[in-house]
Amino acid sequence: MRKFLALLLSVMMSFAAPLSTLAGADDGSMGYSRLKDVASITGSRDNQLYGYGLVVGLKGTGDSLRNSPFTEQSMRSMLDNLGIATELGQMRSRNVAAVLVTANLPPFVRPGTRIDVTVSSLGDASSLLGGTLVLTPLKGADAEIYAAAQGQVVTSGYAIEGEAEEVSRGVPTAARIPNGAIVEQAVAASFETDRGLTIQLRNPDFTTAVRLTDSINGFAKRTWSGTVAKEVDSRTIALSVPNGVSPARFVAAIENIPVSVDQPARVVIDERTGTIVIGADVRISPVAVSQGALAVAVTELPQIVQPAPFSDGETAVEQRSIVDVEQTDGPVSILNGVSLSEIAAGLNRLGVKPTDTIAILQAIKSAGALQAELVLQ
């Protein structure tokens, strides 16, 4: 019987959600990444574009012109530009929605290249499903027009409303137009003539910057018989393009150089979803932990009190509340982790839920035993 109960307990524990480690956890070996995956070359960045436009062809789900007067003004302006005179009376169409159009202009694009755009409602339209974006110029931060967008919008959300119930999924007032914009003007760049380039690490770290500089110089000595990189700070590395090599060929040669990326000891906690991410370098000093859950249940049992017969009393309701308090005692456990797997195993031995694990980690940090940065989201 004891063996059966032990087997049953082990099966039940297997269905729990323990704190586990993923691939490449903490075996002591360092993972290597390519330069292109951990850093970017300055001069080859995206540029953000935006524009104001109209989506037409909606099935009664557009802006109400009374609540969105700018939509009516835009409609009148568009019709006037088309040579159609509009009356001064108020327009009543709900097949049009005012939208904000945004896009990212990739580096090195030429006029005629197509890019994706995102369309977002500005008024009180309930859905952009089935609409078509009218020709919309897209400007950059310098107020210059770099692209023009037009086409049928694609949205994955929907909203169906009845008299007493509404069903919705996703966000029907935001949509995309794949290849919906044509680049009209290229962003001026001097990459082809630059002999000095700069590397920007996506996650600044002095150790990683020095390792990457040494890796680049080691490759450069074998290839061009000289050094080409110099670390500037925790994020920046300065590069010198060798003579006789184009910047494009130089970047292509070094962007696949492997580098051992160092990371700070950090614990990230998302209290909304109960997600806990623990870095491989996190350490916990020996600490004793005891955790007990407190459950409070309140039950309302109202009782009807009747007056005595042939009296002038009134029927009343007497409120009765039953409060049950239950607290489970948790044993005192010693938690000591010098590796990620040991920390995960120690927390799992406590047998607590993710929300309780978050509280335990915060308490360990307050006690000074968590040797890492604690990030709460």
UniProtKB/TrEMBL annotation:
Pfam families: FlgI. The keyword Signal applies. It is found in: Bacterial flagellum basal body. One of its GO terms (biological process) is bacterial-type flagellum-dependent cell motility. Keywords: Bacterial flagellum, Cell projection, Cilium, Flagellum, Periplasm, Signal. GO terms for cellular component: bacterial-type flagellum basal body, distal rod, P ring; outer membrane-bounded periplasmic space. Residues 1-25 form the signal peptide. GO terms for molecular function: structural molecule activity. InterPro entries: Flag_FlgI (IPR001782). The basal body constitutes a major portion of the flagellar organelle and consists of four rings (L,P,S, and M) mounted on a central rod. Belongs to the FlgI family. Assembles around the rod to form the L-ring and probably protects the motor/basal body from shearing forces during rotation. NCBIfam families: PRK05303.1. This is Flagellar P-ring protein. It comes from Notoacmeibacter ruber. The lineage of its organism: Bacteria, Pseudomonadati, Pseudomonadota, Alphaproteobacteria, Hyphomicrobiales. The gene is flgI.
